[in-house]
Amino acid sequence: MASGGLQLLGFVLAFLGWIGIIISTAMPQWKMASYAGDNIVTAQALYEGLWMSCAMQSTGQIQCKVYDSLLKLESSLQATRALMVAAILLGLVGVFVAVTGMKCMKCMEDDQVKKMRMAVFGGVIFIISGLAALVATSWYGNRVARAFYDPFTPVNTRFEFGSALFIGWAASSLAILGGSFLCCSCPRRETSYPPTRGYPKNASSTGKDYV
Q1: Is the model's pTM score more than 0.85?
Q2: Exposed end of the chain (fewer CB within 10 Å): N or C?
């Protein structure tokens, strides 16, 4: 029962992490304008994401523009895109594999060993998915921080961490944690000894032999 609860907890955490990775990938707030200079602009807020750049007016109206050409983008941004998409696809595979190996599911009930291995394999896939998202978000965040502290970057064009980065960090951590729980949820095999056979008892002699 304890291993089943740990397995269910691991799957829920990993699934929530996978959903968070999808949300983080789709959000345009990967970095936001800092406005750290003297000329503070309050009329709009600028955001940039993996797929588009957006500007939010003071009235609440948001205007977004999708990046025109893939070839014109920086190689680092393309790599970040690829890692996040790979994390989403791996998480999708991990969901199906982990569900198959869950104890509460009726799939593969005849072979508990294979069912156990499917749960562990699903946990490994979730860990790889979380690591891919963690590398992508950390790499992007490092680029934002380096550009912010670069003295050659104009003050009015500096960016800070956006909310999508924080969601991505939290989601990747949940995916890794949930995958680890899935890998640790399988009970250890106990050493089974063959049952001891009792020696046959000699028939008690009555002391009388019949011919």
Answers
A1: no
A2: C
Separation between Cα atoms, residue 59 and residue 76, nearest integer Å: 34
pLDDT digits (tens, 9 = 90+) for 101-134: 877 666 656 666 777 888 899 999 999 999 999 9
- How far is it, in rounded angstroms, from Cα 53 to Cα 159? 13
- Rounded to whole angstroms, the Cα distance separating 100 from 106 reads 8
- Cβ atoms of 108 and 118 within 8 Å: the answer is yes
Domains of the chain: 2-26+74-182 (1.20.140.150)
Handedness of CA 173, 179, 185, 188 (dihedral sign): negative
pLDDT by residue (tens digit) across 159-176? Answer: 889 999 999 999 999 999
How many alpha carbons lie under 13 Å from residue 174 in its C-beta half-sphere?
Answer: 19
Closest among 203, 150, 135, 130 to 34, alpha carbons compared: 150
**For residue 24, with 0-12 CB atoms within 10 Å meaning exposed, 13-18 middle and 19 or more buried, which class applies?**
buried
